[in-house]
Specification:
Layout lengths: L3 H29 L16 E6 L3 H12 L14 E2 L2 E2 L11 E6 L3 E5 L11 E5 L3 H34 L1
Antiparallel strand pairs: 1-4, 2-3, 5-6
Helix pairs in contact: 1-3
């Protein structure tokens, strides 16, 4: 088993991989449902989705720093106590990564097209479709793919660092 300070790189990169994987999945669902309709008054209509990300908060950083420093020997009383840092005590049992967190949001965004012959048209002949920009969704997929590859590269670089350190 790898020490926590080594495996934290893998944990952070894996959180990044999960975010990019979800961005790809959301963009794929949006593209697949761009022409989906539902009968008037139905709640079973597809709503465009997006992935909202946020970075770790300061408490997560202090906790990871404390866990990393926990195995160091404290030789001076002025040294930082990793479990009683500037933000108070921490629960060392809970593992927290520094990678991004994400949530999926649905938007009530629709576009209307005039098609009185469509089975899902309202009394005015308007059909409700999810407001999905296919070009934007494709760009989102390309971006997510590149960031996924970047996270994989960081994992490969960390593996190479570990491998070379074993050769010393």
């Amino acid at each position: 088993m790898l020490p926590d300070r080594i495996s934290s790189t893998f944990q952070t990169a894996s959180q990044g991989l999960a975010v990019q994987r979800e961005r790809l999945a959301v963009a794929s669902r949006n593209i697949a449902n761009a022409q989906t309709t539902a009968p008037v008054g139905s709640s079973n209509v597809y709503r465009p989705q997006s992935v909202v990300t946020k970075g770790p908060n300061q408490q997560n950083f202090v906790q990871v720093l404390g866990e990393t420093m926990g195995s160091f020997q404290k030789t001076d009383v002025r040294h930082l106590d990793p479990y009683r840092g500037p933000l108070g005590s921490m629960d060392s049992q809970k593992k927290v990564g520094l990678g991004p967190q994400f949530a999926i949001e649905e938007k009530e965004s629709f576009r209307f097209e005039f098609d009185p012959e469509h089975p899902d048209a309202d009394e005015n002949g308007m059909v409700r479709y999810p407001d999905i920009d296919l070009v934007r969704e494709m760009a989102e997929m390309v971006s997510a793919n590149r960031l996924y590859e970047a996270n994989l590269s960081s994992i490969e670089a960390e593996k190479e660092i570990i491998k070379r350190s074993m050769e010393i």
